[in-house]
Design goal:
single chain, transcription regulation, HTH-type_TetR-like_transc_reg, Tetracycline Repressor, domain 2, elongated, HTH_TetR, TetR/AcrR family transcriptional regulator, Arc Repressor Mutant, subunit A, 2 domains, transcription
Length: 219
């Protein structure tokens, strides 16, 4: 879309009233759905307004152009991931390795409905590699932190290695959910079972104290 208008110089409007915030949320949800369905480039401002049941003037009131919508959505997605891993860290001490495994394996699939436009947004950016690396690093750090809270005796490097395996399992689960990866009706449950067994075997020996390292377990 050609956004070479005076509105391009205006920033995104932050509404103060609840009704305005609700309208912005509806517009962003419509934009996210359309971009997930059609891609970033194919989505137009007019289509976003129509999907949200809003007048085009209402959309331009809050967002000067499509780029502003995309930037807002991207920041929302990044913040949602950050908040999710923060909440996971707060819960991890009270979770067993099997419970933590279940939470992690379904995390991406659970978040997908509110982050479905992320792949389209990433593909539209010239700095997508840097953003993807930062997002991956954030995910690995968040998973590793939860693992070490759940199993205090786990060494940092080992936690990072396990986090990488778990992150790949999470991506496979999302692919199965979206039917983008080879799957069968029972395959997601098998993946959950595999992730459960894996984390139980790796975290259980390291849950008590760091003193368990002397027992020969690789923590």
């Amino acid at each position: 879309m050609n956004s070479n208008t005076s509105s391009e110089k205006r920033g995104t409007l932050q509404p103060r009233r609840a009704s305005g915030r609700q309208r912005v949320a509806e517009l962003l949800a419509a934009a996210s759905d359309l971009m997930a369905e059609r891609g970033y480039e194919a989505t137009t401002m007019a289509e976003i307004a129509a999907r949200a049941g809003a007048k085009i003037g209402s959309l331009y009131r809050f967002f000067p152009n499509k780029e502003a919508i995309a930037e807002t959505l991207l920041q929302q997605h990044i913040m949602a991931l950050h908040d999710e891993y923060e909440m996971l860290a707060q819960r991890a001490a009270d979770l067993s390795p099997e419970e933590l495994a279940d939470v992690l394996i379904d995390l991406m699939a659970t978040l997908y409905p509110c982050m479905k436009s992320l792949p389209a947004l990433m593909e539209a950016r010239t700095d997508r590699t840097a953003i993807r690396d930062r997002s991956r690093g954030q995910a690995l750090a968040g998973i590793a932190a939860a693992l070490r809270i759940c199993a205090p005796g786990l060494e940092e490097q080992v936690a990072g290695d396990i986090a990488a395996v778990v992150l790949n399992n999470m991506k496979v689960m999302l692919g199965m959910t979206l039917k983008d990866a080879p799957t069968t009706p029972g395959a997601p449950d098998e993946l959950r079972r595999m992730n459960r067994l894996y984390l139980s075997s790796r975290l259980a020996p390291c849950r008590a104290t760091k003193a368990v390292r002397g027992s020969g377990e690789n923590c």
